Automatic annotation (TrEMBL):
Full protein name: AraC-like DNA-binding protein
PANTHER family: REGULATORY PROTEIN PCHR
Family annotation (InterPro entries): Homeodomain-like_sf, HTH_AraC, PchR_regulatory_protein, Tscrpt_reg_AraC-type_HTH
Residue ranges that the Swiss-Prot or TrEMBL entry lists as coiled coil: none
GO MF annotations in UniProt: DNA-binding transcription factor activity; sequence-specific DNA binding
Record flagged with keyword Transcription regulation: yes
Domain HTH araC/xylS-type: 196-294
Keywords of the record: DNA-binding, Transcription, Transcription regulation
SUPFAM superfamilies with a match to the protein in the record: Homeodomain-like
Length: 305
C-alpha cells in the first residue's frame, strides 16, 4: 500500500505503514485519500479492522467484480473478513480525517488461539461469507487505549511482531465483546442487504429512478426505515447517493467519448443540461464539456507509443 508520508493530520502523525509482514499490516491514515490492497496472508482471508479517530472514513472493498461501500463515523470502528486479493480503498471526508487500518491473516489467528475460540470469532464476524458482516460499533475507552499504544509505540528492537499481535488480539476481544452486548442493529447483515438491493435498483433505473416509497417497497421495508438506514450504512441520504451514482456514471460515459454532454445528461436522468453541468462541476471540479474534449483528443491521438 502506497502512503503519502508528507501529509500530517490532527495527531501530528503522517500517513505511514506502522508495521507490515506476511501476517500483519497496520497503517495510520492521516490524509483525505488513502488506498491500497489487502496484503496476502499466506494466501488466505484476513480480518480487517478500521478505527475512525477523527472525521468520517468511507471504505470501499472490491473483490471479483463485487463492490461494497461502508462508512465508519467519527469515534467508531468497523470490521469484516476480507478475501485474499480484495482491494480496499479508503477516503476521508476532510483533510483532518484520522484512521487506523489493521489487517491480520486468518491463518495466524487460528494458529495462536484455540480453534474453538477462532471459530467463535469468525462466526461473530461472518468470516465464511464475502462482505457478509459490515458492523459499525462505537469505540470504547479500551479500544482507544490500545489504538494509542499502537500509534505511539517506538520499537528499536525486541519482539515487535509479538507486540502488535497482542494488541490486535486485544482489539478483537474488545470489538467482539461490545458487538455481543450493544450492536448497531442498523448495520446488521439483513439491513445491509436492504441497502444493497436499493442501490441496485437505483443503478438499473438511473435515468428514471424510483421514488423513496417505490424503492422501499422493492426492498421490503417502509420509506421511513430506508431513509434511516441509508445515512448510517452509506453515510448519506438516498437522494445524495443517487446523485453520486449519476455523477460517476456520467464521467464514465463522457470518458468513453461516444456520447455528447446532452446525451449523457439524459442517460443519467437530467432533463436540464445547465443543472447537470452545475452538479457535475460541483462533484468533479471540472465541466462535463472539458471531460469530453479530453476524451476526444485522446481518441484522435491514439495510444501512446
Amino acid at each position: 500500500m502506497t502512503m503519502q508520508a508528507d501529509k500530517k493530520g490532527q495527531y501530528g502523525l503522517p500517513d505511514r505503514t506502522i508495521w507490515s509482514d506476511p501476517d500483519i499490516r497496520i497503517v495510520h491514515m492521516a490524509s483525505s485519500v488513502f488506498s491500497g490492497q489487502s496484503p496476502e496472508h499466506d494466501h488466505s482471508d484476513c480480518i480487517c479492522l478500521f478505527f475512525c479517530l477523527c472525521g468520517k472514513i468511507r471504505v470501499r472493498a472490491v473483490f471479483e467484480g463485487q463492490v461494497r461501500d461502508f462508512w465508519v463515523p467519527d469515534n467508531c470502528c468497523h470490521f469484516h473478513c476480507s478475501p485474499n486479493g480484495c482491494r480496499l480503498e479508503c477516503e476521508g471526508d476532510k483533510k483532518s480525517c484520522q484512521g487506523l487500518m489493521v489487517t491480520v491473516g486468518r491463518c495466524l489467528l487460528t494458529r495462536v488461539i484455540a480453534e474453538e475460540n477462532a471459530a467463535w470469532i469468525y462466526e461473530r464476524i461472518g468470516a465464511d461469507q464475502v462482505f457478509a458482516h459490515q458492523q459499525i460499533l462505537p469505540m470504547t475507552s479500551g479500544m482507544r487505549s490500545v489504538v494509542n499504544e499502537i500509534l505511539h509505540s517506538d520499537f528499536a528492537k525486541g519482539p515487535v511482531h509479538l507486540f502488535y499481535l497482542a494488541k490486535i488480539l486485544e482489539l478483537i476481544c474488545n470489538i467482539v465483546a461490545i458487538d455481543e452486548l450493544t450492536p448497531f442493529n442498523e448495520s446488521s447483515p439483513s439491513n445491509v442487504q436492504i441497502i444493497q438491493k436499493s442501490i441496485a435498483c437505483m443503478e438499473e433505473a438511473m435515468d428514471n429512478p424510483p421514488s423513496i416509497v417505490e424503492l422501499a417497497g422493492r426492498a421490503g421495508v417502509s420509506a421511513s426505515k430506508l431513509k434511516q438506514l441509508f445515512p448510517h450504512i452509506c453515510g448519506t441520504t438516498p437522494y445524495a447517493y443517487l446523485r453520486r451514482l449519476r455523477m460517476e456514471k456520467a464521467i464514465s460515459l463522457l470518458r468513453q467519448g461516444e456520447m455528447n454532454v446532452t446525451e449523457v445528461a439524459y442517460a443519467v436522468g437530467y432533463d436540464s443540461i445547465s443543472h447537470f453541468s452545475k452538479l457535475f462541476y460541483q462533484y468533479h471540479g471540472m465541466r462535463p464539456s472539458r471531460v469530453r474534449r479530453q476524451a476526444c483528443t485522446m481518441m484522435q491521438s491514439g495510444p501512446e507509443k
